[in-house]
Write a structure and sequence with these properties.
Helices cover about 0% and strands about 55% of the residues. The chain is an all-beta fold. It is built from no helices and 11 strands.
Length: about 120
């Protein structure tokens, strides 16, 4: 069964740090991109950070300099290190994996993990 397992969400005070991790099941092949999206109440889901199979990264402007994405291709794992967290970072964070097979891209999603930044 294809699945993404996320861990690491929680509650922190402003200025705090959290690490999110996501492990993709081994039957997801030909992964070309891994990343994190987030969705706050009453907002659309938005891209936070992505990393390609060649380790090219892309970040939303709002998180540049505070968040760092990394991946371990051998373990099908993507990690998001978050520092200097702000209340506006509060959201459900979703792991995303893109697989390119037979000429098409298939997106897989995790179940989501809550991140709350509040004093």
């Amino acid at each position: 069964q294809v699945q993404l397992v996320e861990s690491g969400g929680g509650s922190v005070q402003p200025g705090g740090s959290l690490r999110l991790s996501c492990v993709a099941s081994e039957n997801i092949r030909d992964i070309i991109v891994m990343g994190w999206y987030r969705q706050a109440p009453d907002n659309q889901r938005e891209l936070v950070a992505q990393i390609s199979s060649g380790a090219i990264t892309h970040y939303a402007d709002s998180v540049k300099g505070r968040f760092t994405i990394s991946r371990d291709n051998a373990k099908n794992t993507v990690t998001l290190e978050m520092i200097s967290l702000k209340p506006e970072d509060t959201a459900v964070y979703y792991c995303n994996v893109g697989s390119w097979r037979l000429g098409r891209l298939t997106n897989y999603w995790g179940q989501g993990t809550q991140v709350t930044v509040s004093s």
